[in-house]
Automatic annotation (TrEMBL):
InterPro entries: Emycin_Estase (IPR007815), Hydrolase/PRTase-associated (IPR052036). The lineage of its organism: Bacteria, Pseudomonadati, Bacteroidota, Cytophagia, Cytophagales. Residues 1-23 form the signal peptide. CDD domains: Ere-like. Pfam families: Erythro_esteras (PF05139). It comes from Hymenobacter jeongseonensis. The keyword Phosphoprotein does not apply. This is Erythromycin esterase family protein. Keywords: Signal. PANTHER family: ESTERASE, PUTATIVE (AFU_ORTHOLOGUE AFUA_1G05850)-RELATED (PTHR31299:SF0). Coiled coil: none annotated.
Amino acid sequence: MKSTFRTLLAAALLTAPAAAAFAQTVPTAATDTARIVLDASVVNSVNTQSYFLFRQAVRPLIEQMGDKKVVALGEGTHGTAEFYKLRFWLTRILMEDKGFTQVALENSYGDCYRLNQALHSATLDDLKPLMKKHLLSIWQNRETEEMLNWMHTYNTSHLRKVELAGIDAMYGTAAAELLRETLAHSTPEIVALTQQLVQQTTLQAQIWTNLNDRSIPFKRPEMMANGWAGYETTEQLAQALKKVKLPKKQRAAVAGAVQSLQLHFDTFYQPKVNKRESSRDSVMAEMTKFLVRGKGSKVIIWAHNAHVSRSLPVPGDNNGGGTGKFLERAFPGQYFVLGTSTATGTVAATTHRFITTASPMAAYPLDAPVAGSWEQAFNLVTPATFYVNTRQLTAAGQKHPHRLVGYSPQSGADSYYPLALSRAYDALLFVRQTTAATPL
């Protein structure tokens, strides 16, 4: 399994051979193979035959989430149709009943901003071109499209609008273009800086995309120089903006775009200034904090289990833990995280070393759960779909192998990490047999 859970861009800072090795490095799974025995009384059966039956079954779970400021809906793989579908249904309930107005994807801020503009338009013919341009391929599927279409329909008939946002900072071009467009009539200095940022983020994106083509030499010095220049340009723009007064409508968009670019180029700032790797998890936590800065703001996060978990399951990240751990510190008692998992079926994945908007997704079979894993134990429970409140599990505080599949096809023994469920999630939703997400 590709190690996509720490910082994707950091891998690209290495030499080409080292980057490939980094991308394939995985930790050793737990050696405890004793079968976990589950008490049937803690299993909450879920009916997925329709939205309304599902809504009724998860009512107690929704009540636990409803008063939180940040609710994270995790995914045990980046390509399972049921994980997208059921998270959409949970998102819909939280938006309709509990006052949540934002859903934030593990995707770049500027790109999601462009999609969000379409979700507020009077008419919407086809989202596919925008999804393919602005979403990583893990989100380019029919299941995500269904949620986005629902959001647009909701916005056309409700005064209280719902928003799509991004909390990642892998790509910066859309944010830079947003700044160039929004600040086109500002001072000559600001206009020039936004034009520089478009050039710098475009080059950065091209270098990143080229990493998937082994015939193209990896130009590390060029990437480092451009990345540092981009960081300095962003800082200069941030200082210049302090001298101008923007219309209220523009302030939030500009502030979000600037912050996302500062975090995008943090990958180059940290190694040069602080001699350490940039933490992608802290980046996503900072963008989440930006989204809920307003009074009464609440957000639903869609990201991988490994990010939203309170205890980062991947060894080696010495930057403070996963996104979930950062958010728990930022919002004590106001953070709820739901993990998702499965046992068998198929999963959509790509063979690309680094995920992009153009990474091809195809269906692959999931390997059978390994002995002693949480997935093996859940697979033996009678309901095909259910959720558990992790603190009610007798073995929840003990570390057992837990499968975390990224965007690669690999789902065997190297995809497991020793994890105590009660330290990672508030609840876990399990679907015994799942199918690959349907590409657009």
